[in-house]
Every structure is written in C-alpha cells, then in structure tokens.
Design a protein that fits this description.
299 residues; Rossmann fold; 11 strands; three-stranded antiparallel sheet; globular
C-alpha cells in the first residue's frame, strides 16, 4: 500500500515538473522614475484578478511578465498585446499567447507598455516605442539568466500591439533590434483612410504633424535592416483593414526582407484568438525554424 502511494506521488510530481512553466514573475522595466512621465498620480486599473488579469488601462508604470519553459530552447519573444493604444488585452493577447509558446520551449516576455496619454507624458507618441526598445534591451541584458540566445530574440504583436512590434522592427537602434517580428492583424499605417482611427488618435493625438504620421506609418519605414516578418490577417477584418498587412508585405518585398503572409477570407478582427492553438502556432513555429531562430524542444 505504502509503495503504491509512494509511486503515485512520485508520478504526480514528475508530471508536474514536466509541465511547461507558467512563470508569473513580474519585473519593472525601469529602475527609479519612469522617463517621460509628467506625473505619478495617474492610477492604473485592471479587469480581472491580480493573479489572472484580463485587461489593463491607464498604464503608466511599464513592467515585464516572464514566462519560462522548463526546457528553454534559446528562443525568446517579446509579446505586445493590443487594445487600440487605449487598453492592453492582457489575457487574450498576452498570457494565453505566452503559455502557448512556452509549451514549445520559447521564453516569453509580455511587455506591459505604457499607453500614450498626451496629458501626462512628454512626447506621448514616442512612449510605447521607448518602452519596447527598453524591453528589448532589458531582455538582452539578461540572456544568460533566462537561457536565451541574444541572436534569437524577436517580437509578436496584435492589432495596435502589432503596430508597436512593426515600429520596433523598423525604428529600433541596432542594440535593440529584433531578429524577427510576427504581426497579427496589425495596425501598420497612420494614414487616414487606411489606419485604425482610434489607434491613430490615441498614439498621435488629435492633430498630428505630417512628420509624426510618416514616422509611425510602418509601410514607409521599412529598410533592408528590418528583420524577417510573419504577417497574418483576414480579408473581412472590419476593425483594421487588411490593406495594412498587404502594404507592409509589399514594402518588405520591395526592400528584399524575408516575409511570409497568411491571409484568410473570414474570421474578422481577433480571429486568431478563436482558433485552436496548434492552428495558429504551428505555422509560426515552422516559419521561425525556416529563418533559423527556433529549434523544437522535446518537453
């Protein structure tokens, strides 16, 4: 009887240890005062529990939530949830994505980037990109601790988070450059008639300058230094027109940047969140293998 119980407990413990880590460690992106904030009196709000947040509003203190797999394979990915630069859709486009990639040995860093607010931030249109650059540098400085290869760190972003991922891919300085970018139903352009109007207003303000519009229209910022990109969208997206992804793909092609695009006829905005995980994850992993930044791990 004792031996059977002991064997059962050992088996249970082995099963638990074999599960991919659901690492819930939160770490501040900056030490001390957050650069660009004009006040520290704005209160952040959250839907959901502290342990399982669903959504964040009024983010003024950027953080990184780290998900570490049991057997890291050296690939790291920064995750930028979307939400029109108004909120962060944390569970659907953050923790659920991190868990799916961690199951395959990828170390994930969900970035709780600041949402631009022109009342409380200096140069608010630059704040999300500044946080994304800081997050990439933060991860690269800790590669050894997280068992991540600095040459295999990229990013994925959804909707407005896809705009941020594309902006990081295009505009980051050399020391914060991603090795790949995955853009999921992304806002790409800030051009009126093509962009997502709410994201544009939240990022650039009511009356942006032509220079700001051009700088944050990613189809105009692609260069030969832009990293390989994987793009996915649906034709019937009623929130962010699929033309955003098409323009980005055309720009990447024109500059001879490796790119792969998956377009689907239906599904509307947020389509990926409705699919079984393998249906969206496996094509991404296959592409990551093809550009030599991912190797499967037996878990």
């Amino acid at each position: 009887m004792y031996n059977r119980m002991r064997a059962g407990l050992v088996g249970l413990l082995a099963s638990i240890l074999a599960l991919p880590a659901l690492g819930q460690s939160w770490m501040p992106l900056y030490d001390g005062r957050v650069p660009g904030n004009l006040t520290d009196t704005v209160s952040e709000s959250r839907n959901g529990s502290v342990e399982d947040p669903q959504l964040f509003r009024s983010v003024m203190t950027p953080m990184v939530q780290v998900f570490r797999p049991v057997k890291p394979n050296g690939t790291g990915i920064l995750i930028f949830p979307g939400g029109s630069y108004s909120v962060l859709v944390w569970k659907g486009e953050g923790t659920n994505i991190a868990r799916a990639f961690a199951e395959k040995g990828i170390t994930c860093f969900i970035v709780k980037y600041r949402l631009p607010d022109h009342r409380y931030q200096a140069h608010a249109e630059d704040v999300p990109l500044n946080d994304a650059v800081a997050a990439m540098r933060w991860v690269k400085a800790r590669c050894a601790a997280f068992q991540v290869d600095s040459n295999r760190i990229g990013c994925i972003g959804f909707s407005a988070g896809g705009h941020l991922a594309a902006t990081l891919a295009n505009l980051a300085p050399a020391d914060a450059r991603a090795k790949f970018a995955i853009l999921v139903y992304p806002v790409i352009s800030m051009q009126v008639g093509l962009t997502h109007a709410i994201s544009r207003q939240q990022l650039l303000g009511q009356n942006p300058s032509p220079a700001s519009e051009i700088r944050y229209s990613n189809e105009w910022q692609v260069t030969e230094n832009t990293p390989p990109c994987y793009i996915t969208h649906t034709q019937d997206d009623k929130v962010v027109p699929v033309e955003n992804s098409i323009r980005m793909y055309q720009a990447l092609t024109a500059h001879h940047v490796i790119a792969e695009m998956h377009l689907y006829p239906t599904g509307n905005h947020g389509f990926l969140l409705k699919l079984p995980v393998p249906e969206w994850r496996d094509p991404m992993l296959k592409w990551l293998q093809s550009i030599h930044v991912y190797s499967p791990t037996d878990l």
